[in-house]
Specification:
The complex is a heterodimer of chains A (793) and B (339). Chain A is an alpha+beta fold. Chain A has a 7-stranded mixed sheet, with helices on both faces. In chain A, strands 3, 4, 5, 6, 7 and 10 form a 6-stranded antiparallel sheet that branches. Chain B is rod-shaped and about 130 Å long. Classes of the chains: A alpha+beta (793), B alpha+beta (339). At the A-B interface, α7, α10, α12, α13 and β27 of A face α5, β1, β2, β4 and β5 of B.
């Protein structure tokens, strides 16, 4: 909300510096966003009076003016403007002046004649014809009678371009502060004063029908009050300078006297108003009703709008002429030849206005106020203010009585004045009468133990709301800070600690942590080569996604990881090793909310990474988690992985996840032309199977025996299978089994390979001798023979 | 005989002076002190001496032997030192060559700051609560005193899943979930992802993180809110940090406030970071609205509480001077590896 300081001063005279005022208002709850002096970018431009005009000797189209600037010496100015006459008062940019757009003006010579400065147009002062309707666009701005025409006066004060615009941030619970008077009330209370009530002329009213105007509210749940007043003998013209000036300072464009009055009242009192030309109200009828099916209206800005029965309209005997509280119709508003207007001051249901404005995509100054809930009591005062302005501006004759149709008038809310509770709740100790003063400054009435809430403060409905009023003006800064006391145990849950352990472990292994979006595109599943009936495709879907790229909640974290790897690859990062503890969202039958599960995702590409590096990382991770007896089983059935380079990680029969090289087609779909490694592990299962207990095993007292074992087997025999057989047969002494060579080639028969292990045997009870080792080795060899695995000669 | 002994000593000394390696030294030792060495040979002639001369010469011979031995060990030490010196000089490397580094991954900057915040609150006795990201309208809005068509819904453009479910727009629904399942005293923070229908640019993202805080107990006042958040700000930004509360409006707290911290760059003097104000807004909060407590199943006549919310991205951007929100979710390794 932009506010003119001059206007605000009409209601509450600001007595401190602008900065101090802004700070104080901010700390009492009306945050000042900015302070802007109008015209402060203009420098050294003054009022000049033209006392002589002569032709330029060397140029037909140029004039040389002698200008009085209130000093002993006059100035010579060369100008090309054609709209000057002797005696005109004009804006004159002196040597060193700065115009509104930042242009600097210097004295100079034009075709041999010295010019001490430049005469200015409206635009050069940053103004438009809306501000000075009598000026012309392509000429010098000739100051009218509404300006202070005093040579030498800075132009800002001469034309009223010297107001201060204070911009407030108004929270959604305070529609009453979307007005000068509301902010003046806050300002007064901030400086511990009470704003005096402005007494207006009491209007003569009737409750619905006059012979000139017939108002009917058809839906009292959507319209609480409708006041219509006729003004006749109207002459449409620009409004006076002071009014235009105040509107401009508040960021509203002046239009004409009638429209300006409606905006002026809205800004001053917070009550949106509207003006109709009575010629366009068929049957002089105002029907406040829901729109009919298929009804349409062309709104002020010229667009046709489709209406629905959820929307409230103002209609004449035949058709809608305005969307209630949102915008008027193009053909029913005030025209240049309008002679009789109907002013509207009404109160509509906030939620309904909000829904309508949202549905039509047209939020206006009016709807922004109505939707927060306005006070039906305010309508009459606002109409009174508007009609006073009509009289003050002498632009027409008010017809009385005015029609005041009331469907609902709220009573003042009564709350217990629980001042002790308020003290306890806020943590202060403020006497009852001091609390009462704060409330009274804000127009609350305090009687004994009861507080009456003014009807324009619909937001105050609970003692906690009263406490906020007390706290705001007591000053949040004056509340003593208190440390939390009592014993509280602050600790991570077991799962939270385990998350951190997983993160730290992966970081230590060289993977960097990423954060990806939780939503993906449907197309990501296609890019992943997933079958049309893949269970992954059953995802939680957004009703109103921003774009197709982020339209479904992911059921697998891999597309996110692949996108990130692709982005890095496209940026020519030569390698990347990344991980994320990512959430996936799995729809559940008979449950409104999906299951949210965490997945450990690892993704990598580049020279350092291959299947076994990734596998090693996972082995280490599971070892850290204390999960033993892990098996990696080949899995050729996952369409997004390389069929020959993919494994399922299993603990007994439980699948903890998959890892592998991403299918080349998938890589291509994500535009990565490198081998990509990915793993998706089930965090919850790993957490459930973890074992972080460690117990000490005594260090060996007896020496170990090392033996090597070189074997020949079929090329297809998995090494994992061979080591399983060895472990099975070795007996209790086998302490460690390590693969140290796999070989195929010229030394070996085709279709065969050689596999070499080294074994460490040890007993915890005695020193083993060669005989023990020989026996163990014999057992192993004979067991292997059954699987056609033989000692290499 | 005496002269001969002295002569042997003299010769041995000369020989020892001349040796250049430990092997040569060994040869000298054998030559003079060995079984067949010169000193031994001389001593074998002791028998020819008189009984009076014998002990004197014998003593002299022992002295000379030990002198030579001492000399040998001295020389050995010197030679070894020289050898070592030579080896060291041969082994000289260019220490300005790069070190061999072990690759360590980088924590995401959001995680770094989140963990910092978590640690501060754990230290203040808070636990960490969690709640779903796909949430019921009831928890995200209704229970927080934001009914349908409430203007406050406008400021939080919501992704809907259905009429009744949505992506949470704030971490505040966790407040209600915690109230429903825990009995006071309650002291939790709830960090997590939140979603709003904002198009991506340098300062907007459809997904970002908040950290919610909730304290409920008997006798909790606004003074506690101030005390707690000041402690937080001081630990996050240093002891000299001040906080400033400005009245504000949130439907689920009353009184509500926005909380500024004194600018950690200019210490409140005014600079580009704080746009000359000396203050930077980092938090929103207030006293939990009694209506909300009641909805959560907690008697507002017995208990009171305060709640607050912080934007993690904002904190992190300030912490690391990051000027573009998109960097967090692009995950360029050149960005990540800076942390």
């Amino acid at each position: 909300m932009k506010v003119s300081k001059k206007w605000l001063n009409d209601f509450y005279q600001i007595k401190v510096s602008d900065k101090n005022f802004a700070d104080a208002m901010t700390l009492s709850g009306s945050k000042v966003e900015s302070l802007k002096c109008e015209g402060d970018e203009i420098k050294n431009v003054v009022v000049g009076k033209i006392i002589e005009i002569s032709k330029h000797e060397d140029a037909d189209r140029l004039l040389v003016c002698t200008v009085d600037v209130g000093a002993a010496e006059t100035l010579n100015i060369v100008t090309g403007a054609q709209n000057l006459s002797l005696g005109d008062f004009v804006p004159l940019a002196l040597d060193g002046a700065v115009l509104a757009n930042g242009t600097e003006i210097e004295k100079g010579e034009i075709r041999g004649v010295a010019s001490a400065g430049m005469l200015c147009s409206l635009a050069e002062l940053g103004l438009t014809l809306n501000d000075f309707p009598y000026a012309i666009e392509d000429g010098i701005f000739i100051l009218g009678e509404d300006c202070v025409r005093e040579p030498g006066l800075p132009i800002q004060s001469a034309i009223g371009l010297d107001d201060l615009t204070i911009e407030f941030e108004i929270t959604s619970n305070r529609p009453d502060c979307l007005s000068i008077v509301g902010l003046a009330r806050e300002a007064a209370a901030t400086f511990n004063e009470k704003l005096p009530m402005k007494v207006r002329k009491e209007l003569n009213t009737t409750n619905s029908l006059t012979d000139r105007l017939d108002v009917e509210i058809h839906d009292s749940s959507l319209c609480y009050r409708y006041i219509g007043a006729i003004v006749e003998n109207v002459k449409i013209a620009p409004s006076p300078r002071w009014m235009r000036e105040r509107l401009r300072a508040c960021g509203v464009r002046p239009i004409n006297n009638i429209v300006d009055i409606t905006n002026y009242v809205m800004l001053e009192l917070g009550q949106p108003m509207h003006a109709f030309d009575i010629r366009y109200l068929k049957g002089n009828k105002v029907n406040v009703r829901r729109a009919k099916h298929d009804e349409k209206i062309v709104t002020l800005e010229g667009e046709e709008r489709n209406l629905t029965p959820d929307m409230l309209v103002i209609a004449d005997a035949e058709k809608p002429v305005a969307i209630a509280g949102v915008m008027g119709g193009e053909y029913s508003g005030v025209m240049d030849d309008t002679t009789t207007v109907v002013f509207e001051s009404a109160c509509f249901n906030g939620a309904s206005v909000r829904a309508t404005a949202k549905e039509l995509g047209m939020r206006t100054e009016s709807s922004a106020r109505f939707e927060k809930g306005l006070d039906p009591h305010g309508c009459l005062n606002s109409m009174s203010c508007a009609l006073e302005l009509v009289e003050k501006l002498k632009i027409g004759k008010v017809v009385e009585p005015v029609v005041d149709c009331i469907a609902f008038l709220p009573k003042e809310r009564q709350l217990d004045f629980d001042w002790k509770w308020i003290n306890d709740f806020i943590g202060i100790d403020l006497e009852k009468d001091k609390q009462a003063v704060i409330l009274e400054n804000l127009s609350f009435k305090v009687k004994g133990n009861t507080v009456s809430v003014p009807t324009f403060r619909n937001d105050v409905e609970h003692k906690a709301d009263l406490s906020e009023e007390i706290a705001r003006f007591y000053g949040y800064e004056n509340i003593d800070n208190v440390a939390l006391s009592g014993i509280a145990e602050g600790m991570l849950s077991e799962k939270q600690s385990f998350e951190k352990l997983i993160n730290t472990s992966l970081l230590a292994m060289g993977y960097s942590e990423v954060q990806s979006y939780s939503f993906i595109s449907d197309k990501a599943y296609d890019k992943m080569n997933l079958a049309n009936d893949s269970h992954y495709r059953n995802s939680v879907r957004l009703l109103n996604p921003l774009s197709e790229d982020i339209a479904v909640m992911r059921t697998t974290p891999l597309p996110s990881m692949l996108e990130i790897l692709a982005a890095n690859y496209n940026k020519r990062n030569t390698e990347a090793g990344l991980f994320e503890l990512a959430t996936v969202y799995i729809p559940r039958k008979n449950e409104e909310l999906p299951l949210e599960k965490q997945k450990i995702t690892i993704g990598a590409y580049g020279e350092d990474y291959d299947f076994f590096k990734l596998k090693g990382s996972i082995e280490e991770l599971l070892e850290i988690a204390g999960i033993e007896n892990i098996k990696f089983e080949p899995d050729a059935d996952l369409s997004h992985f390389h069929s020959g380079r993919c494994a399922r990680v299993k603990k007994d029969e439980l699948s903890l996840g998959v890892l592998g090289e991403v299918h080349p087609t998938v890589c291509e779909n994500f535009a990565i032309s490198a081998r990509v490694l990915c793993a998706e592990l089930d965090f919850e299962l790993i957490f459930a199977n973890k074992n972080l207990r460690r117990s000490y095993k005594p260090l060996p007292k007896y020496p170990a025996i090392e033996r090597d074992l070189a074997l020949i087997c079929d090329f297809d025999t998995p090494v994992g299978h061979i080591s399983d057989l060895i472990s099975d047969a070795a007996g209790e002494f086998l302490e460690n089994l390590e693969l140290f060579d796999v070989y195929e080639g010229s030394q070996i028969k085709e279709g065969k390979k050689s596999v070499a292990f080294s074994l460490r045997l040890r007993s915890h009870e005695r020193t083993l001798n060669d005989r023990d080792a020989d026996l163990a080795m014999e057992k192993i060899v004979s067991h292997l023979k059954n699987s056609e695995i033989y000692l290499r000669d | 005989m005496k002269e001969q002994l002295s002569k042997v000593r003299e010769l041995a000394y000369e020989a020892l002076e001349a040796v250049r390696s430990s092997q040569e030294l060994d040869l000298v030792r054998v030559k003079y002190l060995g079984k067949k060495g010169e000193l031994t040979a001389l001593l074998k002639q002791m028998g020819k001496l008189t009984a009076e001369e014998r002990p004197i010469v014998g003593q002299l011979a022992n002295e000379i032997r030990s002198q030579i031995e001492q000399m040998i060990s001295q020389r050995l030490k010197a030679l070894r030192a020289a050898d070592l010196e030579e080896r060291l000089s041969k082994e000289k490397i260019d220490v300005t060559l790069p070190g061999v580094r072990h690759k360590i991954g980088s924590k995401h900057p959001l995680t770094i700051v989140l963990e910092e915040v978590e640690e501060i609150f754990l230290g203040l006795g808070f636990s960490i609560a969690e709640g779903p990201e796909v949430e019921l309208d009831y928890y995200n809005f209704e229970a927080l005193n934001i009914p349908k068509n409430h203007p406050a819904r406008d400021t939080q453009d919501t992704f809907y899943i259905s009429e009744t479910t949505l992506l949470r727009t704030q971490t505040s629904p966790v407040q209600i979930r915690v109230m429903e399942t825990q009995t006071p005293p309650i002291r939790i923070i709830a960090p997590g992802r939140v979603y709003r229908s904002d198009a991506v640019d340098a300062t907007h993202s459809p997904l970002f993180h908040q950290i919610e805080g909730l304290v409920i107990d008997k006798g909790i006042t606004m003074g506690h809110l101030k005390g707690c958040l000041e402690a937080f700000a001081k630990r996050l930004y240093g002891d000299e940090t001040k906080i400033r509360l400005r009245p504000h409006h949130f439907p689920f707290t009353e009184p509500s406030c926005e909380i500024d911290v004194s600018c950690f760059r200019c210490k409140g003097a005014g600079c580009g970071m704080c746009k000359g104000e000396g203050w930077i807004e980092i938090l929103g909060g207030g006293m939990v609205h009694p209506k909300v407590l009641k909805t959560g199943g907690i008697d507002p006549e017995i208990y009171s509480g305060f709640a607050f919310g912080v934007g993690l991205e904002r904190l992190t951007m300030f912490r690391f001077n990051i000027d573009d929100l998109r960097l967090f979710f692009e995950n360029d390794i050149r960005f990540l590896s800076q942390f």
